[in-house]
Design goal:
This protein is an alpha+beta fold and 124 residues long. It has seven helices and five strands, in the order ββββαβαααααα. The structure holds zinc ion.
């Protein structure tokens, strides 16, 4: 058993999808959110990503300076406690607390937060 990287549900046979360039192993339900990559194409996709890396680095999106405040504000607007919000997003409350305090998490976590609050945490 592994966990769906979007909703946290236990899945026996996760599907790999491409969501805005982030590869995630997800359950059938969350699969609808992104493009599924057939197993046989996965190697090609990964290879292409490696080749494109220098270009990707140049164009890497900048996380906004005030991302932690945006995340906290979005939560407070919804009257959620850190524990409740973290649980709904499938991340740990202590991680959310650190993020709201200015810690920059990995892209997957940021993506979960953006999706949950419908935010754009990146500069163009
Ligand atoms: Zn899921």
């Amino acid at each position: 058993m592994s966990e769906c990287e979007v909703c946290g549900k236990a899945v026996s046979n996760p599907r790999r999808i491409d969501l805005d360039g982030v590869l995630l192993d997800v359950c059938d339900e969350c699969m609808k959110l992104g493009k599924e990559i057939p197993r046989e194409r996965l190697r090609t996709v990964l290879k292409r990503r490696i080749v494109k890396e220098p270009e990707f680095e140049q164009k890497e999106r900048e996380l906004r300076d005030d991302f932690s405040r945006m995340i906290r504000d979005a939560r407070e607007e919804r009257n959620l406690k850190q524990e409740e919000a973290a649980q709904k997003m499938g991340i740990s409350p202590s991680l959310l607390r650190r993020i709201e305090g200015g810690f920059k998490p990995d892209d997957k976590t940021l993506w979960k937060i953006q999706r949950f609050y419908n935010l754009n945490l990146y500069d163009k």
